[in-house]
Amino acid sequence: MNRDYYEILGVPKNATEAEIKKAYRKLALEHHPDRTHGDKASEEKFKEINEAYSVLGNPDKRSQYDMFGHNFERMGINQDDIFGAQGTSSIFEDLVGDVFSDFFGGRRNSKNRKIRGKDVEAVLELEFEEAVLGIDKEFTIKRTGVCDKCGGTGAKQGTRPTTCRSCSGAGQVYYRQGFLTVTKTCHVCNGSGYEIQDKCRDCNGTGRVLREENISIHVPPGVDNDSVLRIQGKGSAGHNGGQPGDLHVIIKVKEHPVFKRDDQNVIVDMFITYTQAVLGDTIKVPTLYGEEELNLPSGTDSGKEFVLKHKGVISPYDRRKGDQIVRVHIEVPKHVTERQRQLLKEFDEISLHENKNASKGIFDKVKDLFQ
Questions:
Q1: Cβ neighbours for 46, distance < 8 A, ≥ 6 positions apart
Q2: Which of the pair, 101 or 313, is modelled with greater confidence?
Q3: What is the CATH number of the domain that holds 149?
Q4: Alpha carbon distance 360, 366 (integer Å)
Q5: pTM higher than 0.70 for the full model?
Q6: Which tens digits make up the pLDDT trace of 137-154?
């Protein structure tokens, strides 16, 4: 069994992002390979800590983990993604590196550092049957890509960026405060290490442009409202050769006029006549997989539920299929003909004669209580 990520980091499930980050920093420093000198147990512990933080430190993944536990990986987050495109070392550097810089005066050159692109979210609306049965779907998204005009440099065609004069290309500037050296991101180049004198007009010097793109996605059977599917590498472009981010597709399912979903079960309301309820009948019931026959026994009460086994929704986690619940309701006609009225009265008289107890009306029964 996989260990609970909250337990690994030693934080409660309602911990804030700041508390999770603080706990991770402490444990990562304690078990980092550079400090444990190749100790295998600490090395495994370090990997475990990074795995836990890669999920709990990401609000989207944390939300899915809280809902589905370790099964959230089956929603499209695979083990390769567990550390993101940067890997465990980059996660550690991002959170812990600045601490070493602040306290020990260490210098980190960020000019050539590969930066992973941002993740992108898109909403995909599905019909009820498409979500339940699965479908291959094509839709349009907007994401940031490398500018074709400048090749991502941000500089006007025919020119190149120059080394930042403020930080000498380091991407960071350093201040002396007593015996400490404090590191700050360079405000001139914003950490890139480069200055652009003549900006590319297409991207205004950013090296990135927003464009529309058609995406094909396989929606597995059984997804529900607000399910999230991840498409690796279809997010925004990275910087300095970094990998692109991922696309997170949020599923929205339309309501169906007949079928209603209850977890993996499907509920259908069927209306029958009084005669069918009294005498019994065989009726045809719609299911997601075609029509099925349902045998109504005589004396069926309104509101009675019948179960059609394995006619529900396939679970995207364990592949089990739910049932279809058929609820029958006796439909009372609002308008009757004179002939129908006569027959109903005749039926009522026969029923009263056959059942002497039933011959007493509600007022007679109440009167008997007080005698």
A1: 28, 31, 32, 33, 36, 88
A2: 313
A3: 2.60.260.20
A4: 10
A5: no
A6: 998 998 888 888 888 888
